[in-house]
Amino acid sequence: MGQYLLRLYITGKSAHSERAIANLRRLCAEELDGRYDIEVIDLLEHPEMSASERILATPTLIKALPLPMRRVIGDLSDTVRVLHGLELAGIEPNGSDTGAAP
Amino acid sequence: MIDSQRGAALSMRMSTVTDGHGILLVGENAATLATATQVLTQGGYAVTQAADGEAAWRLVREQRPRLVLLDSELSEPGANEVLRRIKSDPELAGIAVLLSTAARPGDLRQADAFDAGADGYIVTPIADDHLLGRVRAQLRQSDLAYQLRASEARFRDLIDSQADAVLVIDDEGVIHFANAAAAELFDRPAAILVGSSFGHPIDASEPVELEVVREGQVLTVEMRVAPTCWDDARAWIASLRDITERQRMNERLAEAQRIAHLGSWEFQIDSGHRYWSEETFRIFGLTPHGGTVSDAEFLGRVHPDDLAVFEAARGRALSGAAALDLEHRVLRPDGEVRWVHELGELRGDARGRPKAISGTVLDITERRELAERLQQSQRLEAVGQLTGGVAHDFNNLLTVILGNAEILADELRPAPQQAALAEMIAGAAQRGAELTQRLLAFARKQALVPKKVDVNQLVVGMDRLLRRTLGEQIEIELVQGGGLWRALVDPAQLESALLNLCINARDAMPHGGRLTIETGNIRLDHDYVEHHDEVTAGQYVLVAVSDSGMGIAPDALPRVFEPFFTTKPTGRGTGLGLAMVYGFVKQSGGHASVYSEPGEGTTVKLYLPRVQPGSEADDAGEDSDNIAVAGGTETILVVEDDELVRRFARGQLRALGYRVIDAQDGRAALEILRARDDIALLFTDVVMPGGMSGRQLADAAQQLRSELGVLYTSGYTENAIVHHGRLDPGVLLLPKPYRRADLARMVRRALAARG
To answer: Which residues in chain B are closer than 8 Å to A75, comparing Cβ atoms?
Structure first.
């Protein structure tokens, strides 16, 4: 399995932006075993990105690699649903156990 | 507005069908039309006829029939053209069109007719009941189609009239539907939103906050997500509410609370939960977390000593007996103690049952500290006034006791045993006089003679005295500041104050230790002044006396300057030492402070006013202290309201050889002065009843007799002769009580100073 490339779009340093960043880092650390790159893009600093990626609202997380490209929206607090939304749930042989403590 | 327009449009569409004129028959064969008309009229329908295409088209638009039965064999415009016109006009939607044809089904023109939008066909000739059946079936089907369209239109109107933006999103995050509010929220037409990628919405039980980025604007929205089905596939309905304004108001409220140090809270009676604003969390020293706090968590932050009072006040509030109005302490997790003022009111539900207490909490720590300091300085002032008044009267008594004891001792010289008794009386009175002197010092009512003083030199001069007083177990260190400014202060009183501080330091170090006397220049800034009462910002000469003793307990520290307050064992201290030092420094226009760490030691700092460079503060004169005790033969007018003191003064002066005349108040004295011209000196008390003070008497007397000498005496120096605690230039004052030698010396000085 190749490298995951995850782009998180946020707007400024709002509380839910911060929460989304923290949730993403935690999720990647727990689920993706070091095979990931995270890019955080603040649309206040890069307004042009909003148009090029057609971002309607933030926080938006885009799984750019591997294809197919998938995006989810929200503060990413629900790990299981985020994995489902990114179509990453399949990386664990037993999807329903994803996120459960051993 | 928009909604009512939509409603009007909807009811108009409805009317095209239900209120229309029944059935329009179109055909060129009159007999066929007549037969059909008869059948349908009998079937209960209103029937109109048209003989050609143009007439049919006109009647359709005029009458809006529910159904058109159109003969396919029309000449121009043919049946297909009429059909096309009807079906392509949205205004005429809902009108059913049946084609009648003599040909068999499957005929190519019939297929054309269906393509053009015909709803069905009948093959002629047709039996009467078949015709009626076909028409009924077609009308029922049209009604169903209409109702379906109307229903969909109603739901679309409902969704579009929503203030919340509504999106339908498929499992891959692509938008399939967007309502009018969504188009407005995202600032792009719904047609463009549909097909765009929004993102897979995480369907959480709690609403999720998002930002919507628009041209130059960031909106905060709250998104709720529910699963649905769209085109037979799993999808999500997301509704997004613009909460930007709500959030801005919350931010403004939080900002106002933060600035005012005023938090708000609500206590839910049933659940025992408290809802706290962010500022309330900060006041209690907690990190804000989600707004709710358990009652136990809150009670843990109420200072344990105030818990019972708080619970009682809350009990009264819960029972409706009284609104909550209480000041109590808060113990923050880091141990800091703050004072808060809580106000709260009971709120009921719709049936009036108590439901919650809503309230505010205000941090009043700074305000209380200020009030306490004010109270402290007011208490010191009140005690000072009381002390000053008592000391004044006491001085008069001591003057008599001391003076007469000295006379007795003199006269009893031949009987040494009795003379010793008289000397004991004099000694005790002298000690009493020293005590009242200290009281006056504390009350800021002693006569000070400020001079330019080099404090370093003064401290060095005290070195031997200190070593003798403190003993060998205490090491003395002098740390002298370089370039020390000169202080404007009474040097004798400063010595006395320093000696006092050193004795306190010695008593704090019973097993020996180190005493440090430090001098330096210091500037007290406005910040310091704001936190200390009765201090003005400016330049001061600092003398600090530190010991390595046991220190002072924190709760005793604020009271150490109060008179009669002592931490020493009973009988060891009068409680006047520091009070006197404090009064002296304050009267001199300076400031005193104490720092102490229990177990480490104590530092007392005296801030003495700096001599302003170039000022003419007096350090001349005062050199005639060595005039020998001598009497004279001049005539002296003694003015004194206290008869005991008057008799005593008269006796003393006569013993010194003077001629003495006395008066008990200012008016009597002036009469004597007018009557006689042999009076050389006016010796007057300062404070006297009868409307004329010693100062006023002296002024009046010197107008009569400019060469008259004046000597004041007082147990209590008032503003009449002492401005801000300093003698007026040229004024001579003999403080009560006085020894005969002092009296003799001052009388001679006053006589020598005559104009």
So the answer is: 208-209
